Amino acid sequence: MRGTGDLLETLPPLHRLALAYAPARARLPTLALLALDARLAGIVRHSHEPMLAQLRLAWWRGQLGNDAANWPQGEPLLAALGFWQGRHGALAALVDGWELLTGPVPLPAAALVGFARGRGDAFASLAGVIGAGDDPARVRARGRAWALADLAGHLADSGERRTAGALADAAEAPRVSRTMRTLAVLHGLARRRSRGLSPGALLAAMRLGLLGR
Question: Is 94 within 8 Å of 144 (Cβ atoms)?
Fold first, then answer.
């Protein structure tokens, strides 16, 4: 599909690595999800005022609530979301999760948990779109565990980092199918990122991609 190469470039390098382990039939829907996640992250990270971030997030929430036929032309990310086969509305949960991070610092634990819930719900929806056959509850739990571990590695406030790290350590992370292997690799990389991404850590993450454990 035209424009997917540009979308791939918007992903963090480790997310590109994880995407490489997605089976062919899952790659484009997974890319669309990760690219949307990256776009929302950029909105939250680069908006100097919470209200500006919330307005931009509201635009994406509105688009996800629309039929794809009514989307504006020329936005590669919206075009890629067409691979969600009309089920893109479920991704509003991801927008809601990112919006919880626009509150005043220090963010309460409830905001971090809510953010993780939005990311986990998005991956559970992806499993349905690509016909992964996984129990949605297992995918949702693994997605939340990844979200918390990833968040702990990016928060600037030390108290928030400790809270997110403790929540990540306590989170259940069930195994998922090969079709959802990208999620397993994302989780493995996020957990190892906090300890430094040594060559051994990257090899362990690649083992997750190949073997799922």
Answer: no
- Chain position carrying tokens 């490489």: 20
Q: 119: closest CA among 186, 192, 52?
A: 186
For the beta carbon of residue 93, count every other beta carbon within 10 angstroms: 19
Helical spans, DSSP H, in 47-134: 50-64, 76-80, 92-99, 109-129
Spans of all domains in the chain? 4-211
Cα separation of 26 and 132, whole Å? 9
Residue 37 backbone zone (phi > 0: left; psi -120 to 50: alpha; other: beta): alpha
Report residue 74 as tokens: 């020329």
Contact call for residues 123 and 180 (beta carbons, < 8 A): yes
pLDDT tens, residue by residue, 57-93: 999 999 999 999 999 999 999 999 999 999 999 999 9
Q: Are 24 and 51 in contact (CB under 8 A)?
A: no
Neighbours of 137 (CB within 10 A): 12
